[in-house]
Amino acid sequence: MNNPAQPAIDLVWGAVEIGKEINRKPRQTFHMLETGLLPAKKVGNQWVAERGKLRAFFLGEEAA
Length: 64
Hints:
It is built from 3 helices and 3 strands. The protein is an alpha+beta fold. Helix 1 packs across helix 2 (about 25-35). The chain has a 3-stranded antiparallel beta sheet. It comes from Mesorhizobium onobrychidis.
């Protein structure tokens, strides 16, 4: 069950899906991920990012 005090984390899995979220081609996204330009982490072989942090990053807001 979800705790009402903590909203569910909305994750985006994989470089291709992250690229779709930020409107970038897969190769551009992969480069941004590998160089640490995006707020994402690698879990095993796959990149994962929180949707809210990606949006905040591109809006210039500090993600909480």
